[in-house]
């Protein structure tokens, strides 16, 4: 699914939300059609490369170069930004509406923890700061001004009296265009909600073409809101809904049409990236590497863990929310010497507006095709239980097959921060990714699970050294040991091999 230096002390609860991830993007149907045609080893965010027995990591990108040009993506990314999405820095006043009753009440957390998270989100943006904050109760969160009359007046006075405020962050999922406009008018500064703030963070952290396009797509609803507000303003001056002479369209309709065209352009560019990956995959010979998806709440230590498991120096864990915005693949080895591919994924966050998740869910769709999911938890986090619930809800909504859901390995990370930590769940693996503690057990558990899910087996094969059998096994399976056979021309070879590869071996070399 990254951003500002994330202070551990001021930590908060990030986010994935239990919401269907199937998106409303107009190119969805095309995407689905393409998806059905894909091999079962597809990864939207990345293409993996096989380098003999030392496959490296790959962040996807270079191979798609000629398919969609940087300039084309940059144009879409830079051309139209929602208001307030420039490079400017803000001094932010945070307002957290505390809903005490009704459907919108949050049951698994507290207003204080949610405020901490809000502070963390703002601080994730470099050079942004929090000038003041307030938790204010409301019985009418659905109303335009969110608060009752008295509280709203008090809040407005407080904001206007606070020196240096350049923006207000209202810690709700999404403000309606009308609310946004009226709050901006009342407070005289830019107003952000979670959707726009998180998108802002995404925008600053986006590096790859796919991330940039996904962000541009997620920004479309903000552009629509802005348009609606602009037209409302123009109408007040008697302008927006008039027909443009000779066109039969109003200004609003023209701008809406342009936005729709932009949306389709972005969808088509995303589709081209996917098609290209599909093509590249089909061109490569299928390699039998098991795939392990590393998932979890943002900042729980996914990237740190993969770095520790693979020694991949290119990986850069950061004390930031949403440091990883793209799915990347990294090769490592299990105790039997079997090569395995670890997939680093975008972190989850609770109460993230579903349209945002929709845009990024494509990067998670392919997790469905992995052989194992490792769920990493920051066990030192005050909201660790809430985070687990969020992550599992999202996984359910991704329609992960039951075989994967039931074999998830839960990892309790950052145990170095909790003295003498003993997991209450005997099935969980306790580790410190940072200090590389507990990784051997994790690798053994991973291997055990993969052997089960892939049907791989350890076999001892009698190999004819005059034939290319041994070379083939080195390429297609994991050779663990080679011992002299009964004569000079044979060897006994211990391999880990899948049922499919063993079938191919027997057919190719006519072994019974
Ligand atoms: N103390 C401690 N810190 C850790 C451990 N593992 C990771 N961290 C720190 O936690 C922060 C986040 O680590 P990342 O690996 O970037 O987390 P992530 O889950 O990939 O985060 P996103 O990509 O933003 O979702 C970094 O500052 C890490 O150094 C650990 O075992 N102990
Ligand atoms: Mg990461």
UniProtKB/TrEMBL annotation:
Keyword tags: GTP-binding, Magnesium, Metal-binding, Nucleotide-binding
Alphabetized InterPro entries for the sequence: G_HFLX_dom (IPR030394), GTP-bd (IPR006073), GTP-bd_M (IPR032305), GTPase_HflX (IPR016496), GTPase_HflX_N (IPR025121), GTPase_HflX_N_sf (IPR042108), P-loop_NTPase (IPR027417)
Gene3D superfamilies (alphabetical): GTPase HflX, N-terminal domain, P-loop containing nucleotide triphosphate hydrolases
The Hflx-type G domain, residue ranges: 290-454
Record Pfam families: GTP-bdg_M, GTP-bdg_N, MMR_HSR1
GO cellular component assignments: cytoplasm
Top-level taxonomic group: Eukaryota
PROSITE patterns: G_HFLX
Any GO molecular function: GTP binding
PANTHER family on file: GTP-BINDING PROTEIN 6-RELATED (PTHR10229:SF0), GTP-BINDING PROTEIN HFLX (PTHR10229)
Protein name, UniProt field: Putative GTP-binding protein 6
Organism expressing this protein natively: Tachysurus vachellii (Darkbarbel catfish)
Lineage: Eukaryota, Metazoa, Chordata, Craniata, Vertebrata
């Amino acid at each position: 699914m990254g951003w500002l230096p994330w202070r551990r002390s001021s930590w908060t609860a990030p986010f994935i939300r239990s919401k269907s991830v199937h998106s409303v993007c107009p190119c969805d149907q095309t995407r689905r059609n393409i998806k059905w045609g894909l091999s079962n080893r597809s990864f939207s965010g990345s293409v993996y490369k096989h380098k003999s027995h030392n496959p490296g990591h790959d962040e996807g990108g270079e191979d798609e170069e000629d398919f969609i040009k940087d300039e084309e993506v940059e144009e879409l990314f830079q051309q139209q930004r929602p208001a307030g999405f420039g490079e400017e820095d803000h001094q932010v006043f945070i307002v957290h509406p505390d809903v005490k009753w009704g459907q919108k009440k949050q049951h698994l957390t507290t207003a204080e923890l949610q405020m901490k998270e809000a502070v963390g989100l703002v601080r994730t943006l470099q050079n942004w700061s929090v000038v003041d904050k307030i938790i204010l109760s409301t019985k009418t969160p659905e109303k335009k001004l969110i608060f009752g009359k008295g509280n709203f007046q008090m809040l407005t006075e407080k904001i206007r009296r606070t020196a240096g405020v350049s923006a207000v962050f209202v810690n709700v999922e999404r403000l309606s265009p009308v609310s946004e406009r009226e709050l901006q008018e009342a407070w005289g500064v830019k107003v952000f909600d979670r959707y726009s703030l998180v998108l802002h963070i995404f925008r600053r952290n986006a590096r790859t073409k796919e991330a940039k396009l996904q962000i541009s797509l997620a920004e479309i609803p903000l552009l629509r809101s802005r348009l609606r507000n602009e037209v409302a303003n123009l109408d007040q001056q008697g302008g927006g809904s008039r027909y443009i002479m000779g066109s039969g369209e109003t200004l609003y309709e023209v701008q809406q049409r342009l936005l729709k065209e932009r949306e389709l352009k972005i969808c088509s560019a995303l589709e081209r990236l996917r098609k290209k990956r599909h093509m590249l995959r089909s061109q490569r010979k299928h390699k039998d590497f098991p795939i392990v998806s590393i998932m979890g709440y943002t900042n729980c230590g996914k990237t740190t863990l993969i770095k520790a498991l693979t020694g991949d120096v290119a990986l850069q864990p950061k004390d930031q929310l949403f440091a990883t915005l793209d799915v990347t693949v990294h090769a490592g080895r299990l105790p039997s010497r079997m090569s395995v591919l670890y997939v680093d994924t975008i972190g989850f966050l609770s109460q993230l507006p579903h349209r945002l998740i929709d845009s990024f869910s494509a990067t998670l769709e392919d997790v469905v095709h992995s052989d194992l999911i490792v769920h990493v938890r920051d066990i030192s986090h005050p909201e660790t239980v809430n985070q687990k619930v969020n992550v599992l809800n999202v996984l359910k909504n991704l329609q992960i097959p039951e075989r994967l859901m039931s074999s998830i390995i839960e990892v309790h990370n950052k145990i170095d921060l909790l003295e003498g930590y003993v997991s209450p769940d005997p099935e969980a693996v306790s580790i410190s990714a940072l200090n590389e503690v507990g990784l051997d057990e994790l690798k053994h558990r991973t291997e055990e699970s993969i052997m089960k899910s892939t049907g791989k087996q350890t076999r001892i094969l009698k190999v004819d050294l005059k034939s290319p059998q041994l070379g083939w096994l080195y390429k297609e399976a994991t050779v663990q040991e080679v011992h002299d056979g009964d004569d000079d021309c044979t060897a006994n070879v211990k391999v880990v091999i899948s049922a499919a590869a063993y079938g191919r071996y027997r057919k190719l070399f006519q072994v019974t």
